[in-house]
Specification:
Residues 75-147 form the Cyanate lyase C-terminal domain. InterPro entries: Cro/C1-type_HTH, Cyanase, Cyanate_lyase_C, Cyanate_lyase_C_sf, CYNS_N, Lambda_DNA-bd_dom_sf. Keywords: Lyase. The active site is at 88, 91, 114. The protein has 147 residues and is of the alpha+beta class. The chain is built from five helices and two strands; from the N terminus they run αααααββ. It has helices at residues 5-17, 21-28, 32-39, 47-56, 84-108, and strands spanning 111-125, 132-143. It has a two-stranded antiparallel ribbon with strand order 1-2.
Length: 147
């Protein structure tokens, strides 16, 4: 994945200031994962949201404007991802994709889950055997049109 120059600057400022995505969520008033998607240029913010992001990071307001431009989404390379965390999602879809699809179709009919009318939440769930990652994806069901 190629990281844009603006993303590099935002991440460097985030690291330098010791700011978490959760801190940005509190400052902006929107979900931390959505804010991360803006920083990684997979979503666009309005000017007010973008300004809150850059000023919270201690950057000039002039850096907000690029965050308002609709990005080129889906920046992963076409080959199988090699980053271990991202690869696990690929592996999960290889193993559970068809079963999930079957259950969705059984419950909703023939259609898809929107990635536009969509949210994702990442939570840390304490567990005595080792903390767990809980990811909740919520997308609008879109039935296929018949004509």
């Amino acid at each position: 994945m190629l990281i844009s120059e603006i993303t590099e600057k935002l991440l460097a400022a985030k690291k330098e200031k010791g700011i978490t995505f959760e801190d940005l969520e509190k400052a902006v008033g929107l979900d931390e994962t959505w804010i991360a998607s803006v920083i990684y240029r997979q979503a666009s913010a309005n000017m007010e949201e973008a300004t809150k992001i850059v000023t919270t990071l201690g950057l000039p307001e002039s850096m907000a404007e690029p965050l308002t431009i609709a990005p080129l989404k889906g920046s992963l390379e076409p080959q199988i991802p090699t980053d271990p965390l991202i690869y696990r999602f690929y592996e999960i879809m290889q193993v559970y994709g068809m079963p999930i699809k079957a259950v969705v179709h059984e419950k909703f009919g023939d259609g898809i889950m929107s990635a536009i009318d969509f949210s994702v939440e990442v939570e840390k769930v304490p567990d005595p055997k080792g903390d767990r990652v809980q990811i909740v994806m919520c997308g609008k069901f879109l039935p296929y049109k018949k004509w």
